[in-house]
Amino acid sequence: MLILKALILEKKILIFSLHSQACSNFILSLLSLLPGLLHFRFDTKNVCLYELSYRNDGFPLRIFDDDKRMLMLYFTIHNLDALKTKESYLIGTTNLLIKTHKNTQADMLVDVDKSTIEFKCEKFQKLLQLNSGEKKFI
Fold first, then answer.
1. What is the pLDDT of residue 23?
2. What is the DSSP letter of 1?
3. Average pLDDT by consecutive 10-residue portion of the chain (138 residues)?
4. Most buried by CB count within 10 Å: which residue of 3, 34, 48, 53?
């Protein structure tokens, strides 16, 4: 739930795993928790109807819809300079250099292999604590 809340708050989230499939699957699973976020534009009548239904309800959330927010299932070191201009991101990588690089500046580091979450600062960790309404929702 902490990761989902950080995603909604548009924070910088780095997902790390030594296995690219585990990393990508984790990100896709996370995105599937938000209605319509995994909706890719296919040209079929049924998908267009779902898209219209989502838009009437205000979905999908516009988390990755402009140049200031980045979503990459597999992030390589060649894209490292692109992070300097991003306000938020959700990226996955298998590269230890990206995980430890100073330009990454992730608010949250999720290590899928170790099942750990690391925070940049304690203030951010406190922000993600669940309030009573969120606990009831879960």
1. 92
2. -
3. 84 93 90 70 52 65 74 87 86 90 86 92 79 79
4. 3
Q: In this structure, are residues 13 and 89 in contact, taking their beta carbons and an 8 Å threshold?
A: yes
Exposure b/e, 97-120, CB count within 10 A at least 16 = b: ebbebeebebbbbbebeeeeeebe
| H/E stretch holding 93 | strand 88-93
Q: How confident is the model at residue 41, as a pLDDT? A: 45
pLDDT at 68: 83
What is the SS3 string spanning 2-71?
HHHHHHHCCCEEEEECCCHHHHHHHHHHHHCCCCCCCCCCCCCHHHHHHHHHHHHCCCCCCCCCCCCEEE
Domain ranges of the chain: 2-35+62-137
What would the two tokens of residue 112 be?
Answer: 């899928």
